[in-house]
Design brief:
The protein has helices at 41-49, 89-99, 112-117, 133-146, 163-178; strands at 2-12, 15-26, 30-34, 56-62, 74-77, 151-155, 182-186, 197-200. The chain is α/β, with parallel strands linked by helices and 205 residues long.
């Protein structure tokens, strides 16, 4: 599998956010996207996810499912944790699994490994409204474990995570890459992606 971007240009609200952005990632690789606020880190991930369109350039995936878009083969973790407060931890995970094309079922135990992987298996029946910010972030990470997709697009993934949870995330990312997955992460600091390539935005827009 190979994810490539060629001469991407992003314009939002009439302002050029970045231009001439290119990269190529092979299976098992990671790319850390850095730069100051407003440089376009989040916009680049949203372009790859298919949430916005580039003004110029293209993105290509070789070795993926030709019947699916790149966005449909990606997990996008944005700044906001999209959870329904009235649903339990397990019900939230089942909702997202069904949305992504997998069915866990209300009484299924298939979701428990994903919750255990992020340390939330003991809170499966708790309404999401009672979760802390860090627990909400871990529940968002659980959906990436529950439903396999080859590309992870992570926007400040360590936000609200304590030291132990950051180590857990590093383990999840390491396992994903070991299985041939790709990771692109926008971040202001180290997040445990050993040997990752780096793309700096904002130096010469």
């Amino acid at each position: 599998m190979r994810l490539s971007a060629f001469d991407l240009v992003c314009v939002r609200g009439g302002r050029q956010v970045f231009r001439n952005v290119s990269f190529a990632l092979e299976a098992g690789a990671a790319l850390v996207v850095s730069g100051p606020n407003g440089a376009g880190k989040s916009s680049l991930l949203r372009l790859i996810a298919g949430l916005i369109r580039p003004s110029h350039g293209r993105i290509a995936l070789a070795g993926g499912d030709p019947e699916l878009t790149i966005g449909e083969q990606s997990h996008y973790l944005g700044h906001q944790d999209a959870l329904k407060p009235s649903l339990s931890v397990r019900e939230n995970l089942a909702f997202w699994a069904e949305f992504f094309g997998a069915v866990l079922g209300k009484n299924s135990s298939n979701d428990m490994p994903a919750l255990a992987a992020v340390g939330l298996d003991g809170l499966a029946r708790l309404p999401a409204a009672y979760l802390s910010a860090g627990q909400r972030r871990r529940l968002s990470l659980a959906r990436m474990v529950a439903v396999a997709r080859p590309i992870w697009l992570l926007d400040e993934p360590t936000s609200a995570l304590d030291t132990d949870a950051q180590a857990m995330l590093a383990d999840l990312m390491r396992a994903h890459r070991a299985g041939g997955g790709l990771i692109l992460a926008a971040t202001h600091g180290p997040i445990g992606l050993e040997g990752a390539q780096e793309l700096k935005l904002g130096a010469s827009r």
